Amino acid sequence: MNSPSWPYWYAAFPAQLFEPLSPDVIFTVGILLVSEVFPDRTQALAGAVFNTVGQFGQAIGLALIGVVSDSVTLNSKYANKNSSDALWTGYRAGFWTLVFGKVAELAFRGIVQYPWRADDWIGRECMWKQQLKPGKEKKMNPMTRKLQ
Question: Which residues pair with 141 in a beta bridge?
């Protein structure tokens, strides 16, 4: 499918060309959601924090994968560390590090993050139903999650 011995124009250039599409779409949608959720006076701050955290996360992730890939390549059994086989060993280790990271993230979200939110939401919803009286409509403030 791909070979480290290929010239730049065969695989690296198309990858560089199409790679920004996904993060650009994610950042655009994320900024729109952040802007919609926060009040007008703090939208700029919220967008700046969102962008900073995203950039910092990308930098840490790329650094981690680079360290793993280089470390595995340098400690491979191949004498020539610039050979295709040695490089592929490092690339595979970087790939499996990403797979492990994604599985760990999904496990964290499924086991730790979402059950708390579900319990919190169900508990608040029951509390809201008890507070509502016939004829009195109340709306929830999305920032504080309290009835108004």
Answer: 146
| C-alpha dihedral (64, 70, 75, 81), degrees to nearest 10 | 170
**What pTM did the predictor assign?**
0.56
Q: Which residues contact 132 (CB under 8 A, 6 or more apart)?
A: 138
Quick one: pLDDT at residue 123? Answer: 46
Whether residue 98 contacts residue 119, with contact meaning beta carbons closer than 8 Å, is answered with no
- Using CA atoms, how far apart are residues 24 and 30, in angstroms rounded to an integer? 10
Half-sphere exposure of 140 (CA within 13 A, CB side): 13
- pLDDT tens for 31-67 read 888 877 888 888 888 888 888 988 898 899 999 999 9
What residue has token string 């124009």?
A: 9
